[in-house]
Amino acid sequence: MSILHVKQWHGRGLNAALTRGAGILRGTITDNPELFLPVACLFVWQFTAIAAKPSAFACALLLTLLLFIYGYRVLGTTEWLRRLGWVPPRQGFWLYSLIAGLAAAGGVWWFARIFHQSLGRVPPSQRILLASSSGPMIEEMLFRGLLFWLIFELLRRMSLPLAAAVSATVFLTAMAFALSHNDRHGPRLYATILTGIAFGWMRVRSGSTAAATVMHAVYNLVLLLIAMLSGA
Q1: What's the rounded Cα separation, in Å, for the pair 132 and 120?
Q2: How far apart are CA 5 and CA 79, in angstroms?
Q3: For FRET with 111, which of 30, 37, 67, 141 sits at 20 to 30 Å CA-CA?
Q4: CB-hemisphere CA count at 13 Å for 154?
């Protein structure tokens, strides 16, 4: 067999493998969003965390935009996403989630001033992007999505009344959310519990984890902007 024939054979094999791989990826993206969306969130989150150089940061911005577009397009498209609450919110709650995020940030800023707490150091730009995009998506899909659904279903099977089950679920997910953070003592812990309850309230009232994600992202972004302006 000549060298030319060997190269042609390898070329056809490589093209076939790439075509097959692209087909599998396309099928995963379109047919299994409940699998691809969390993986995409984790990938964008990890990439953004290390995107210190301007070129990498620009790439992180683009990936974040694509993640938002994909996350919006797959809202409520599969049974698992509906169980996680990744569905379009009730009418008006896109706007309400923005307002609630602003209000929650203002409340925590006021809380921090009363108790003479710092909002922390201003993080680098890639951390700000992470905290206002892929970070809230991951946290809300975990706490107000998967964990919320598991606790609520368990409590309902224990014959707990609906209102009590909802309230307990919101509180327990807020506790788990607070304990997952570094600040697990004093006023910071209480503030994180309260914001967790607020995100849970948005999840319940809107019927959507996506609305809680928007509220969470706005809350993080506004607090970081306040920290930057105040030189905390």
Answers
A1: 16
A2: 50
A3: 141
A4: 9
Alpha helices in 74-185 (DSSP H): 79-83, 93-114, 125-131, 134-140, 148-157, 162-179
- Length of the chain, in residues: 232
Residues 6+ apart with CB under 8 A from 188: 117
Task: Tell me how many degrees the CA angle 220-168-145 measures, rounded to the nearest 5.
Answer: 50
Parse the chain into domains and list their residue ranges.
1-31, 34-230
How far apart (Å, rounded) are the C-alpha atoms in residues 7 and 160?
68
The residue with tokens 């607090």 is 223
Q: What are the phi and psi torsion angles at 207 (to 5°)? A: 75, 20
HSE-up of 128 (CA within 13 Å, CB side)?
Answer: 15
What does the block give as tokens for 127?
């951390």
Q: How far apart are CA 132 and CA 60, in angstroms?
A: 13
Residue 60 token pair: 């992180």
Q: What is the CA radius of gyration of the chain?
A: 21
DSSP 23-49: HHHHHHHHH-HHHHHHHHHHHHHHHHH
Q: List the helix and strand counts (H, then E) for the chain.
A: 11, 0
